[in-house]
Amino acid sequence: MEMRRDMMKIQERTGFDLAALKSLLIYSGMLWTSSVQAALIATDSFATQAGGAPSYYDTAINGGSIDNGSAQNPSVGVSGFTGAWDAIGYKTGAVQAQNGVSLTHAMSAGSAMNGSIRGYSVQGGRADLSRRVSRALTSAPTSDGTYYMSILLRKTASSTTGTLWAGLGPSERYDVFITGSTSTFIGLNAGAISFYSNGTITELLASGNVNAEETYLALLQFDYSSAGADSVTVTLYDSASVQQATRTFNNLTLNMSYLHLAICPYYSPEEAIDEFRFGTALSDVVATGTDVVAHDDLYELPAGEITITNAPSVLSNDLLADSAVLVTNVTDGTLSFNADGTFDYTAPGVATNSFWYSAVNATSTSTPAKVTLITTPPLPQIPTDPKKLHVYLLIGQSNMAGRAPYTSEEEGIIDGTFLLNGSDIWEPAEIPLNQYSTIRKELSLQKLNPGYTFAQTMAASNSAVSIGLVVNARGGTSIDLWAKGGTYYNEAIRRAQIAQTNATLKGILWHQGEADRDIPTGYINKLTNLVFNLRNDLGKPNLPFVAGEIHESVSLQINSQINQLPGLVPFSGVAGSAGLSLIDDFHFDNASQKLLGRRYAAEMQRIQTQLNSPPAFSGSIEHGSDSITWGLTNLIPGAMVDILQSPRLSPVNWSTAATFIATAPSTNWVGSAVEPQSFYTAEWR
């Protein structure tokens, strides 16, 4: 997650070069341009017949020339193509022109909309062929600059599986449709309005949000450079000219030599396109008119800040606006609003505020638009004292990675908790907590894990410290894959060691076992070895370790062995799975992951309480000629104990006099060459 350090303006932008649009100045109620006239490179209204039977841009299955139909003229208004439509390679080129069925839109610059193009429903009895036609532009862009394309889109059914594309690309793209990085396409894809670029299809407006029988205007701004590194900004408007989506695609290598139409891979008679236009100015492809239009804006201040100075102009996403006037002031805080749309604002604190303005030009004033202003609390600060950041390592397989779906209720920063990110830097923690695992499966699989409520519980129990999580789990892994020396083990150690450079490692959470359900024999031996190796390599022989049970329906044998751990390994515990529910054969649901996380926390707190109760000296003290014997109680068999010594005159200067592993709850410790004026104490290593 990248921290937002600069003010972010989230707005309904037009997405194209408004400077080009605003070069069309309003003078005495008339539009005029500079002496350098813009060029409309190509346009096609597809079907211009007044009536009669439908005409087809058609070709044989194995290629051939196109029959444009009687009196059909695909080039309307400008001679922008080198020839007629033609099929691409050996693919069928059938698309159907619908005479008299035109798509209209208030922002369209077209003038001869007498028909449209839709998918051809059948071709030689085969309805599943990829069908495409192409046509070379007479004046394909070769010089650096900005170019514009527009096209109208509509579907006639609420749901469709069809695909109908229109776009620009190189002539050599004849083999398959969706390939290469030099082509850009806009169209209807299974009912959604989508954009293709750089080998990827991106959904701009979901199918459920695309209204049947409504015409949408797609605007594309191409920022072209012969040196490469081109970009395309796509903006989508509904029939009321309200922007529905905008997206910029960078690092492209554009080739705009050919206009392509394609139906791929299914026929789509319920989808239609119309009014392709391509030129060097926005006025070539969209009707500008004279009425000014203002769009709503949203400004979000960086977390913890309450002041904006010289905010970006509210006019930047408006049409034909020369200036702005304030209509309604903010109800709280202070606002200084300028005629150019910039402003200064000071919020009353953490709040959401708003004001209204109208955009103005020489002939009109827009309907007021709303500007929303959001201030948020400061981001949590990472403790500078390592003792104030308590770190926990979370490892294992898919339930530790998290597979439970989560809702908006669980989203957002987890109070008092930080997550070690992919750059080995602490950031405020948000789910999915396994997102930065260096060994995880794809990001879409990472969801809610027990670390969510574990961190909440641990942070709430001690407000003087913050919680740091190092989560490095991977689904489907057996315990053998976590053995010392393997990739998963090594990455857990590496990331935990990095975390300790500015924090204190306080424990390990382990959840694994589903993958070993069919071979449970020896599981406990592997688990105890894992605990020993982790503690040894992290330099913490008594580091708390809590293992979680898997669901009882998966393997009672694995759970039986997991529950042997506290009797074999000191300062270890088990988070039980009794009463938990699954979403499938192995994975806990949302409520169960939350409950499991709280059980992990309870076990961790129990073990930490043990660590806070060190061994005690008791009984008589026996002096020998060169030794002293102390009685020690409150020992935990298997735990490592340090005996600390300090000179009597310097009771804060402790040094380790001896270290041993407890074998019984109590014992006698014999110190040699004891200084009679020294202090002694014992603690867990």
UniProtKB/TrEMBL annotation:
The keyword Hydrolase applies. It comes from the Bacteria. Residues 389-605 form the Sialate O-acetylesterase domain. Keywords: Hydrolase. InterPro entries: Carb_Esterase_6, SASA, SGNH_hydro_sf. It holds the Pfam family SASA. One of its GO terms (molecular function) is hydrolase activity, acting on ester bonds. PANTHER family: 9-O-ACETYL-N-ACETYLNEURAMINIC ACID DEACETYLASE-RELATED, ESTERASE, PUTATIVE (DUF303)-RELATED. This is Carbohydrate acetyl esterase/feruloyl esterase. It comes from Pontiella desulfatans.
